[in-house]
Amino acid sequence: MSEPQPAERTLRVVGICGSLRPASFTRTAVKIALRGAEEAGAQTQLIDLRGYSLIFCDGKEDESRYPEDVFKLRKQVQQAKGIILGTPEYHGSFSGVLKNALDLMGFNEFEGKMIGLVGVSGGPMGAFTGLSDLRTVGRALHAWVIPEQASIPEAWKVFDPGGGIKDRDLEQRLMEVGRQVARFACLHSAEQALQFLNTWECAPVNPGGAVKTL
Fold first, then answer.
1. Could you give the angle at which helices 168-189 and 191-202 cross, rounded to 10 degrees?
2. DSSP for 163-178, written as a single string
3. d(CA 209, CA 211)
4. 82 bridge partner residues
5. pLDDT, tens digit, for every residue of 52-103?
6. 5 phi and psi, to 5 degrees?
7. pTM for this structure?
8. Are 35 and 5 in contact (CB under 8 A)?
9. Sheet containing 43-48, strands listed edge to edge, beginning at the edge strand earlier in sequence
10. Sign of the CA dihedral 159, 120, 150, 34?
11. pLDDT truncated to tens, each residue of the chain (214 aa)?
12. Domain spanning 6-209, CATH class
């Protein structure tokens, strides 16, 4: 196996679980997606919002009374190059706890980052509407939301009580979200890619590339 490049060694991907349920299917799904990011060479961290004491975002500019966990959350997301957002679908959208966490952050945490989306639902239609809403949020934060996503319908049939997953195809789909977040984040931040783009932008016009009219 080739020696990983410095950019690969420092690549960090976090997964944010937007569910507060103790036995959360969303948490399990995000963990599986993070395994895919690890396979692609990333350092990963699960950000479980159950363990954070967050204030409701009220839009005020004075943050002196914010609990320390708000700044802890921001710092952990700032340090990541890739972010996996996981949510249950509630009433046709993503969860309120995830929305509040996102509202407590902004461009400093998300701009230019790669985002992957994972959603679960108890019903047969999956979490497509919630994930579509999260795509809109990602664009508003100037992030890159990858095309690959994983929506899991009837999650109670898919995950076992021990935190495992019964459907191997869905497991691979979740892991592929993590892999792609890590790969695109690596490409986006790789020095080689930046050098290539700079060289391409500075290249002289190819005189043989123009079509001559007779």
1. 50
2. S-BS-HHHHHHHHHHH
3. 7
4. 13, 114
5. 999 999 887 788 889 999 999 999 999 999 999 999 999 999 999 999 999 9
6. -75, 160
7. 0.84
8. no
9. 43-48, 12-17, 82-88, 114-120, 144-152
10. negative
11. 344 444 445 799 999 999 999 989 999 999 999 999 999 999 999 999 999 999 999 887 788 889 999 999 999 999 999 999 999 999 999 999 999 999 999 999 999 999 999 999 999 888 999 999 999 999 999 999 999 999 999 998 898 877 788 889 999 999 999 999 999 998 877 665 566 556 656 766 655 544 444 4
12. alpha beta
Sign of the CA dihedral running 137, 145, 122, 26: negative
Q: Which two tokens stand for residue 28?
A: 């399990």
Q: List the structure tokens of 213.
A: 């009219």
